[in-house]
Design goal:
The chain is of the alpha+beta class. It contains four helices and 15 strands. The longest helix is centred in the first third of the chain and has 49 residues. The C terminus is likely disordered.
């Protein structure tokens, strides 16, 4: 049997197509990488060694330079910053609260007892204080002492009423003791005026004053007024100062405490107390509550604090 001769034509590799996407170009690249793998590895290692050597040399130079020159420069810079750039004492003096402004002590004698009235003013818009005070006579002897408060930017009267003394107090002056000023926390109270308007909105209405004749030597003061709590808070105690005027001169004082004054409540008050014979043509009624003290508020149902 005769066999059919085979074709001796050379295979054209350019016409090779792989169904999975392997091309002749990819095969050539892979072949080249396989043949030169050792050389490529050596080149990469040499490059990495050069980079490491340069990095080591730069780090060594930086450390040596710092220990020779940089450390001393840092010390001098820190010294200049602490000594020359910031005047700490001047900054503290500039931002320190101003002293409490204390007026003259007024003394009123009623039936063997003494009432004292002292005007106070806080010139600091962001500082308040809970302080202790004493009344001293001309010899520096402390006659009376007590505790009070003053809110930021506030003007108020400090009253000491019905005090019994062994002798006439004479000329007195008020001395503030332990005047520990505290700055308002800007996070808790960013706007003091809004905070004050929201918590101190208590109106005094229908103020009616008259004199009741008792048939004795001195008559009685008679005062009627209405207090309206416009705030959203219940007050466990809301003190009010009562200032008696004759023209432009203060001639007497009293105080009253409203207990458990609820939000939106309107309460009528009727008072009478002995007169010292003074003439009165105007009565000023001023709420004097420390709205920064959480103890003055009644908690809402189910709450511990307002």
């Amino acid at each position: 049997m005769n066999k059919k001769p085979r074709d001796n034509k050379e295979t054209d590799l350019k016409n090779y197509e792989d169904l999975e996407g392997l091309t002749l170009q990819k095969m050539n690249i892979g072949l080249w990488l396989s043949l030169h793998r050792r050389k490529i590895t050596r080149i990469v290692i040499i490059i990495l060694i050069i980079i490491a050597a340069i990095s080591f040399a730069y780090s060594a130079y930086s450390y040596i330079y710092y220990f020779l020159y940089g450390r001393q420069a840092d010390t001098e810079l820190l010294q200049n910053l602490t000594d020359n750039q910031i005047d700490s004492q001047a900054y503290r003096d500039l931002n320190a609260p101003k002293n409490l402004i204390i007026g003259d002590v007024s003394v009123f004698s009623v039936q063997g007892k003494y009432d004292f009235l002292i005007p106070l003013e806080n010139p600091n818009a962001r500082h308040y204080s809970n302080f202790r005070y004493c009344l001293e006579n001309s010899a520096g002897v402390q006659v009376l002492c007590g505790d009070s408060f003053i809110l930021p930017g506030a003007k108020k009267y400090l009253l000491l009423l019905g005090q019994e003394l062994e002798e006439n107090p004479g000329t007195l002056r008020l001395v503030a003791i332990n005047m520990a000023w505290q700055r308002l926390n800007a996070h808790d109270i960013p706007d003091w005026n809004n905070y004050l308007a929201n918590r101190a909105d208590v109106q005094v209405l229908d103020n009616k004053y008259s004199v009741l004749e008792s048939g004795g030597k001195n008559p009685f003061h008679s005062l009627q007024f209405t207090v309206k709590n416009n705030t959203p808070y219940h007050f466990a105690a809301l003190p009010v100062d009562i200032i008696l005027w004759n023209g432009t001169r203060i001639v007497g004082a009293n105080a009253y405490n409203l207990a458990n004054l609820l939000s939106a409540e309107t309460r009528s008050v009727n008072l009478s107390w002995p007169s010292g014979g003074e003439r009165v043509n105007k009565v000023e009624i001023i709420p004097d509550v420390n709205i920064l003290n959480q103890d003055v508020y009644l908690p809402y149902r189910g709450e511990l604090n307002p």
